Amino acid sequence: MSRTLDHTGPIGAATPTDRAARLRSTWHAAWNEGAVDALDDLLAPAYVRRRGPAGTPQGRGEFKAGISAVREAFPDLHTEIEDVVEDGDRLAVRWRSTGAHAGAFLGVPPTGRRVEVSGATFARFEGDTVAEEWVTFDARQLLEAIGVITTGHTAAVDPDLVRGVHRRFITGVTVVTTDDAGTPKGLAVNAFSSISLDPPMVLVCVQRSSATHPALHRATHLGVSILAADQLEVAKTFAGKSDDKFAEVLWTPGEHGTPLIDGSSAHLEVEIGERIEAGSHTVFTGRVVAAHHTDRAPLVYSGGGFFDISRTAPLPW
Ligand SMILES: Cc1cc2nc3c(=O)[nH]c(=O)nc-3n(C[C@H](O)[C@H](O)[C@H](O)COP(=O)(O)O)c2cc1C
Asked: Which CATH class, in words, describes the domain spanning 16-154?
């Protein structure tokens, strides 16, 4: 996809590859060894770190103090960088941190519990240094592990009850795809929604355990094929785990390179914007950059079953 490894730039400026290597080694020093001053070479003096619309922006000093506080509470903290994607002066990092809660944190005395938090950081370089970063992670993973909040297994509402509610909600079935350096990847997704028409934006929710997830995290674009009523076999293929799902279907690359399933009811190509970590899933939002629809009836999914909407009677209203 449109990832750049452009080595041109002002003399003395870091090349993209240097940036990724420097970020990896600096993160290792700061997060894994506690050498937070290493960040002074990577982060601009006026560096700003942002965390979601509600988060208070942090400067370089506050960020360094924050890392030290986390390391005091989790002395064996280890952050692993799972993926780095470069695009011009931007760098996207997918990471996972683990550590045992051995010191007071957010007023909570040590619980000894092992905590795992994963997320993504998007850095904007100006020359050699990072001017700005946006970070997204699911803080509930951390807060729940040390007992600050209670969700998940001990949720206020029985998960089976919630599942039963979701089974009453009717959706279509999409295949969400991406081109992973020449290899098509995709999965069946019904957590697809329009966000806005002006500008046209959509979202899809993809479980982090999906084999397609890392490719989507690396991608600049994703494709959405809204399956037609006669594509039940396609839905089953993409809901499965085959290594080569695309060998079993006919597909065509869209104008932005995403694999689109032939014979679908409609297609979209989406330029990925935000990747928001939420519970077990990542919410990918994005801007629609290509759209196409046909008069083929869409496949319908409800209560664990598939339906052909063209065989239902419309209600007068
Ligand atoms: C009708 C239907 C809807 C699904 N919706 C989603 C979804 O919205 N998000 C998701 O992550 N998985 C969803 N799944 C499950 C994935 O398609 C399934 O786990 C698949 O095996 C993942 O493939 P992968 O691991 O090769 O990426 C859905 C499955 C079906 C049958």
From this structure: alpha beta
Tokens of 253: 């690359």
15, 23 Cβ separation under 8 angstroms: no
Q: Domain map of the chain by residue range?
A: 16-154, 163-311
Q: In what order do the strands lie in the sheet with 78-87?
A: 43-50, 129-137, 114-126, 90-100, 78-87
Give the integer Cα–Cα distance in Å for 99 and 73.
9
Give the Å distance between the CA of 310 and the centre of ligand 1.
24
pLDDT mean over 220-243: 97
Atom of ligand 1 nearest to the CA of 306: 1
Nearest to 190 by CA among 301, 306, 294: 301
Q: What is the distance between the alpha carbons of residues 229 and 213, in angstroms, rounded to a whole number? A: 26
pLDDT top residue among 5 and 239: 239
Q: Taking residues 179-190, report their average pLDDT.
A: 96
300 lines ligand 1 (CB under 6 A): no
- Phi, psi at 49, each rounded to 5°: -115, 125
- CATH number of the structural domain 163-311: 2.30.110.10
Q: What spacing in Å lies between the alpha carbon of 166 and ligand 1's midpoint?
A: 15
Residue of 171, 178, 189 with the most ligand 1 atoms within 8 Å of its CB, for mutation: 189
Q: Which residue of 176, 185, 187 sits with most ligand 1 atoms within 8 Å of its CB, as the best mutation to test the pocket?
A: 187
